[in-house]
């Protein structure tokens, strides 16, 4: 008998981080592996599915414009019922901390499957930041049967919450599996987005790459961020800011209102993963509030200013590639200028580090489950 795996995800970062696991399980004849997307994201999810050539077996197609947490959570749980009843998986895999993660772990638990949590154990210990992700991840951690912790810190967090050590495996983060697989390809593929970037942007300039979307930064936080970026554009010679803007309307509105039409700020649509990786490799530094980008950039030797007050990923802060700057306009501007005008500091911060993984996380997860099955 083959053991049945159901891998569930719904947003862009979950898809990037689960894609290598989907591939690893599909290659393994001991398992029948199916993919279910909630489509909490649509366009941004489909970009990832296309690049990694994953065709979901089930697509709940849930995304609504301007969706809220109440309706989305309910839709995920009820939407998964028929899928779980039809396929009857032995193992359900969820990733990280989104509403898809939390809803799918509850639905999977109701179905009687064993729940496997990838990227488990990250904590800020502040339930409002990141909101609602800190609580999503904590709830999932207490529903899950098996916990794939990316680092020793996340392992320790789980142990401190009473999870037994036999049920936790330190794997490294699967984001590094995806990054290593992609970074070797992006210079040689014929990618229309990369071509477009090359033709539209002057890469002899000093490139600052920006992303942002966190809910706790919506409103005043984003206004501060945009004003800081405007000031950075005015204060540093020859700087070019490139900002692929997240599709959330709460992000699009302030960003286009405040930064639209400024010459040295390129506001562009979210990039598919290969073009984004290519651009990360080309830039001088990254300013972001993203979890995934915070993990990828140190592996490419790029300093990161994180526009958050807390992080559940302290490892790169500890090795010195990441600094937390919050959403205070003056602090963002001051730290960026200091870094860009101080070559010694820049050199120190841009040393290559891989605190989040070695590219073999998925191999370790498959091996762990094979021993159980
Ligand atoms: C979600 C996750 C967050 C994750 C982020 C990654 C929750 C609560 N939030 O935040 O943890 O870090 O994804 O990007 O789970 N939209 C589109 N097309 C898309 C994607 C989004 O139009 O492909 C717009 C829609 O109007 C949608 C809105 O963005 O309603 C918000 O999407 P949602 O998934 O609820 O929140 P995010 O801010 O993307
Ligand atoms: N990313 C992408 N295109 C973009 C911006 C980001 O493919 O235009 C990738 C990035 O490489 C990382 C992931 O999306 O792997 C991060 O997603 P996001 O910031 O939306 O979510 P978070 O990681 O904060 O949950």
UniProtKB/TrEMBL annotation:
CDD domains: GTB_UDP-GlcNAc_2-Epimerase. Pfam families: Epimerase_2. Transmembrane segments: none annotated. Keywords: Isomerase. SUPFAM superfamilies: UDP-Glycosyltransferase/glycogen phosphorylase. GO terms for molecular function: UDP-N-acetylglucosamine 2-epimerase activity. Its EC number is 5.1.3.14. Belongs to the UDP-N-acetylglucosamine 2-epimerase family. NCBIfam families: wecB (TIGR00236). This is UDP-N-acetylglucosamine 2-epimerase (non-hydrolyzing). It comes from Maribacter luteus.
